[in-house]
Design goal:
76 residues; mainly beta; single chain; 45% strand
């Protein structure tokens, strides 16, 4: 049973289901680094994982919370 966060990623605001690789439950409005089919992207958690069993596949994985270095790279 995987716990999926709902995360908004990309310039167009695609919403997808992402699983944290370190099993952390990121709270709502957390900025995170995710791996998608397009590579690494920054995203915002819209909803932390619910306590329900869900077997649907994830759209990608959450690697970590956004760091200062990530914010500087985004600004460039």
């Amino acid at each position: 049973m995987a716990l999926h966060h709902l995360v908004r990623v990309g310039a167009l605001g695609h919403v997808g289901r992402f699983t944290a690789v370190d099993a952390v439950r990121y709270p709502r409005a957390s900025r995170v680094v995710v791996r998608t089919g397009r590579g690494l992207e920054l995203g915002e958690v819209l909803q932390p994982p619910a306590d329900s069993a869900d077997a649907a596949p994830a759209d990608g994985s959450i690697l970590r919370g956004v760091t200062v270095e990530d914010q500087l790279l985004q600004a460039r």
